[in-house]
């Protein structure tokens, strides 16, 4: 009988950290089922993904380590999915350490280390700062160019 591993995530701005955790989780069993948080569920969690849910689901499903990608719609779904997919392992990143220990009555719960130096949250922060910092500079540059064109006309 196949050993099923179950995990969940938003998987926004898919990066090497996401790929690494999926690969490590696949190594813990024969079958990897991945719940991808819907946009509506992310809103409840206070997250606003950049990539729409349907695209994130398709990206995750295309990863060779993933056997099945499913929508994650609420917190309670985890226990239902453990039973539905006969999961033996529930795995997630160490940033959730301790948050899912209550599932250990049904599955082995593992928290995996994050990939150093990469984070969707950090990527979004950098992009956000870039926008805020550079929009004013760009506006000033365009105003200066406009003034030069006027003077040369």
Can you put this structure into words, describing what you see?
The structure is a single chain. This protein has helices at residues 16-26, 39-44, 53-62, 77-84, 120-152, and strands at 4-9, 31-37, 68-72, 87-93, 108-112. By secondary structure, the protein is α/β, with parallel strands linked by helices. It has a five-stranded parallel β-sheet, sandwiched between helices. The protein has five helices and five strands.
Features:
153 residues, alpha/beta, 5-stranded parallel β-sheet, 5 helices, 5 strands, elongated, Rossmann-like_a/b/a_fold, transferase
How is the topology of this model organized?
Elements lengths: L3 E6 L6 H11 L4 E7 L1 H6 L8 H10 L5 E5 L4 H8 L2 E7 L14 E5 L7 H33 L1
Parallel strand pairs: 1-2, 1-4, 2-3, 4-5
């Amino acid at each position: 009988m196949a050993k099923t591993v179950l995990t969940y995530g938003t998987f926004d701005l898919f990066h090497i950290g996401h790929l690494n955790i999926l690969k490590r989780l696949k190594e813990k069993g024969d079958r990897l089922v991945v719940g991808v948080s819907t946009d509506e569920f992310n809103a409840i969690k206070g997250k606003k993904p950049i990539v729409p849910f349907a695209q994130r689901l398709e990206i995750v499903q295309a990863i060779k380590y993933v056997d099945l990608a499913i929508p994650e719609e609420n917190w309670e779904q985890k226990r239902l999915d453990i039973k539905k997919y006969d999961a033996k392992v529930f795995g997630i990143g160490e940033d959730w350490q301790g948050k899912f220990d209550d599932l250990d009555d049904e599955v082995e719960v593992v928290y995996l280390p994050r990939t150093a130096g990469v984070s969707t949250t950090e990527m979004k922060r950098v992009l956000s700062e870039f926008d805020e910092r550079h929009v004013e500079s760009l506006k000033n540059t365009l105003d200066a160019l406009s003034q030069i064109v006027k003077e040369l006309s």
